[in-house]
Amino acid sequence: MRTTRQLSLGGVKIGGGAPVSIQSMTNTDTNDAEATLAQIRELAAAGCQIVRCAVPTIRTLDAFERICAESPLPVVADVHFDHRIAVGALERGAACVRVNPGNLRGEAEAREVARTAARLGKPVRVGVNGGSLNREIAARLGKTAQAMVESAEYYIRIFEEEGCRALKVSLKSSDLRITLEACRMFAARSDIPLHIGLTEAGPVSSGIVKSSVAIGTLLLDGIGETIRVSLTAPPVEEIYAAQRILEAVGLRQASPEIISCPTCGRTHGDMLSLVAQVEREVRRIQSSGKRIALRKIAVMGCEVNGPGEASDADVGIACSAHGGILFKHGEKVATLEKAELLSAMIRELEDATLR
Q1: Tens of pLDDT along 119-140?
Q2: Rounded distance between C-alpha atoms, residue 20 and residue 17, angstroms
Q3: Most buried residue, 61, 73, 169, 184, by CB count within 10 Å?
Q4: Cα–Cα distance between 170 and 351 in angstroms, integer?
């Protein structure tokens, strides 16, 4: 595993062996503090640990200050083009500020942000995107992984010279291979924590696949301290996807694993609807701040797959031609009507719920 320096972002430990944190970004108008705070609360309930808000203008800082004061999560200010906004956001309560080297006008501006962050003891994320690199470096190297890494290193030097060592870096491209190459290259030559993801990953259907490959690959390499699954979707969907990725690579068990058969000609009942309803119930319980003390639950479509193929599940339901069964650890415990299957599973989930 890669060893990194540790920093604290609004109380969330990042790097230095701390667990990987999940981040998302609001898509509300930040000037609408009520709507933004409502979305942040929804994200927090779903399992988000760090939230980022766009701060596009100086005028947005008033609403942003209120958001920082009332948010249940540490808030990162996302700032482009105007370094004065980054300085103002840090002074108004941002737990961290994200700046893009390609969108800063010059070194003097970067140094002012660095001095402010150092004075306030706030971390900075140097967020490099493949489409917005340091101009001189991009002119020399093109839109390459090497150019992304050198853009980050150029500004890291500036920030550290001004006493700001609480840094994390992101190196994101919409090109999966370039993203992997850049993150691996940077991880091999720096102990600064990395925020990983795939920028502009796309809609849910393709974005989750691409993000899972990129983020999962890096995490299995021991690279990545915070993650975001960037989707063209409601932000809460990013949290569910991120949790699944962490579960898949063995870094978190945020919820019981749901196993279900892929359906075939033996399937009895509407499996797609049944699985979706069970998944919603798991989310509903967890969003209330409770934990379900089950490792694996099964939703199966016939007697072949359940309980036989799902014998290692803590609890499961399986459809049959005449109704269905409830089983635990491979043993049938009840015969049910089809209409009773979902309610039986819900009772099992609630009985296994811990506060």
Answers
A1: 999 999 999 987 778 788 888 9
A2: 9
A3: 169
A4: 42
